[in-house]
Amino acid sequence: MNNNYDIIVVGGGHAGCEAAAAAANLGSKTLLVTMNMDTIAQMSCNPAMGGVAKGQIVREVDALGGYSGIVSDKSAIQFKMLNRSKGPAMWSPRTQNDRMLFSKEWRLMLERTENLDFWQDMVVELLVENGECVGVKTQIGVEFKSKSVILTNGTFLNGLIHIGEKQFGGGRAGARPSVGITEQLISLGFESGRMKTGTPPRVDGRSIDYTKLEEQPGDENPGTFSYKAEYKLTKQRSCYIGYTNQNVHDVLQTGFEKSPMFAGRIKGLGPRYCPSIEDKIVRFSERERHQLFVEPEGWDTVEIYLNGFSTSLPEDVQQKAMRLIPGFENARMFRPGYAIEYDFFQPTQLNNTLETKVVPNLYFAGQINGTTGYEEAGGQGLMAGINAHLKNTNQDPFVLKRDEAYIGVLIDDLVTKGTSEPYRMFTSRAEYRILLRQDNADIRLTKLSHNLGLADDNRLKSVEEKSKNIHKIINNFAKTSLVPEEVNGYLETQKSSPLKQKVKASSVITRPNITVLGLKENNNKLAESLVEFNEIEIENAEILMKYEGYIRREKEVADKLMRLEDIKIYKDIDYSKLSSLSAEAVDKLIKVKPATIGQASRISGISPSDVSVLMVFHGR
User: Fold this and answer.
1) Which residues of 333-359 are buried (b: 16+ CB within 10 A; e: fewer)?
2) Could you tell me which of 126, 152, 335, 547 has the fewest CB atoms within 10 Å of its CB?
3) How much of the chain exceeds pLDDT 70, in percent?
């Protein structure tokens, strides 16, 4: 048995899987330690990937050489592009997935990854020598040594499950909690806290009357998460929408006195944007109903995930209330919903590489950092795996900026601002979201991935060809003139002003409701010029032409503000001796230890005058 590795990853969830894959693919001898090999990358909550802003992260992970996009495509049972009615910065891909197949495909991909070993056991202790992390010790007493350790413990650290007045230890339903690590980290000087999340009942789909629900089919022409587009859906399963009502709410309220949340037994703070059904009833008491999403858990299973009905009320109350939902009159539960509390560590204790400031060579990724969601976890795991490898091989760290990726926004928010509630990515968190679209993640990030050694030459060549073709389309539109008699009929159908003279196609395409498809059907020259290009290239070109002005202005703003990111803060700086800094600024800067002036400027409590003081001190 090999007891010496370059990198050890603790935890086989979404963060751990991406961390292990990235480290191993970069050439590090990697060990993934997980409590159960049969639940690698398990979808503990909803059987879906992506969604608003989260879909952008999956695309970014794929562009950087991660596995999440490929596994999502291979296990998808439905694909939808959300927010199509809004601007392209808001478009977000989402898949409904076969939960069992998702976990299976992840395991198979990891087992086919060179340099990656596995060990099924619980890590109970970190090995620390001279203040640095040098390995782990497992529950059965085996010690593994390494140059770096990445903790991706999810909801398992002292996990406590609540159902009504019942509570028991667990990292999720049917799994034991992880104990020992929190206490050791606190003894080493880390600040710990408690968070809470929840999940709804799982229902027997054979007991549901779907005729009383609203069907939600997938897209007619389903896309893929991975830019490789190797696995595309040819058939799909529908989801459904249902609604609660006042009778449902009345029954749920009968269990409030036994609610662990209202009784104060749950101390951790839950996700504000994804409240439990009992929380929604209290917070939105004026609403007579709440929307529910009825989501199948796979191709062949009858199990249903009742999204929107997350609860920790007693199981009998859950069952009674659920049967008052139209379509669920005879519903049978496979298992009740529950809440889970777990330990996390304030992410301001991390560098922007996700290495901890307290213990060198120790990295945190995923829910241990106070985040929620498979996608946020996967993005962090990928970055931790990359940076652990780079540090071990004496290379420069890999840090994505806020104008380069949602993953950059995510990590910068965490390490700079910290979080007091489970952090979820939204498009509104990204100030440069028109630059960070889901359609261009490959163009933004594949070259960076290739430089690291994750993306191969063929993948880079493919992206370069795509980019070249997009600009060919744009140039064709700039050169092609449209005459009134050819396109005025089409313009009128779109309630757009008719042309009075010849106009370049690049000018007309910027109008609202006008599409490349519509123009090419009314101009033979345009139609001929687009024959050699695929759908994705045409759509990308249309976005760039329509939003060229907005994109240019946002890039100019980003470039101006990002100059502050190039000003590194001296490592040995003593903020207490900078008398012009406010007292609050001194406290915050000492705690966060920002790496750049740009990062310092985003810390809550740091004023423009404080930034000016730092600029002067650094000779700027």
Assistant:
1) beebbbbbbbbbbbbbbbbbbbbbbbb
2) 335
3) 100
Half-sphere exposure (CA, 13 Å, Cβ side) for 46? Answer: 23
Helix axes 68-75, 374-392, angle to 10 degrees: 140
pLDDT (mean) for 250-254: 96
| Fold match between domain 4-197+342-452 and domain 457-551 | no
> What's the CATH architecture for 202-337?
Beta Barrel (2.40)
Distance, CA of 275 to CA of 549 (rounded, Å):
39
Q: Say if residue 268's pLDDT is above 80.
A: no
CA distance 335 to 345: 30
Residue 362 banded pLDDT, cuts 50, 70, 90: very high
Domain ranges of the chain: 4-197+342-452, 202-337, 457-551, 567-617
Q: Write down the pTM of the prediction.
A: 0.93
Q: Which CATH number does 567-617 carry?
A: 1.10.150.570
N-term to C-term CA, the chain: 55
CA distances to 44, 320, 429, 483 from 226, rounded to whole Å, are 23, 42, 24, 40
CATH 3.50.50.60 fits 4-197+342-452, yes or no: yes
pLDDT value of position 606: 87
Going by the DSSP 8-state scheme, the letter that residue 355 receives in this structure is: B
With contact defined as beta carbons under 8 Å apart, do 28 and 4 qualify? Answer: no
Whether 620 shows a pLDDT value over 80: the answer reads no
Report, as an integer, the average pLDDT of 168-193.
93
Which amino acid is located at 394 in the chain?
N
In three state form, how does the secondary structure of 465-484 look? HHHHHHHHHHHHHHHCEECH
Q: How far apart are CA 356 and CA 377, in angstroms?
A: 17
Q: Residue 399 has what DSSP assignment?
A: -
Quote the CA–CA distance of 305 and 317 in Å, as a whole number.
Answer: 18
Question: How far apart are the C-alpha atoms of 605 and 486, rounded to whole Å?
Answer: 59
Say what the pLDDT of residue 460 is.
97
**What's the CA gap between 232 and 438, in Å, rounded?**
17
CB 59 within 8 A of CB 227: yes
Task: Using alpha carbons, select from 234, 216, 221 the residue that is nearest to residue 77.
Answer: 234
Contact 79, 237 (CB under 8 A): no
> 460-516, pLDDT tens digit by residue?
999 999 999 999 999 999 999 999 998 999 999 999 999 999 999 999 999 999 999
SS3 333: strand
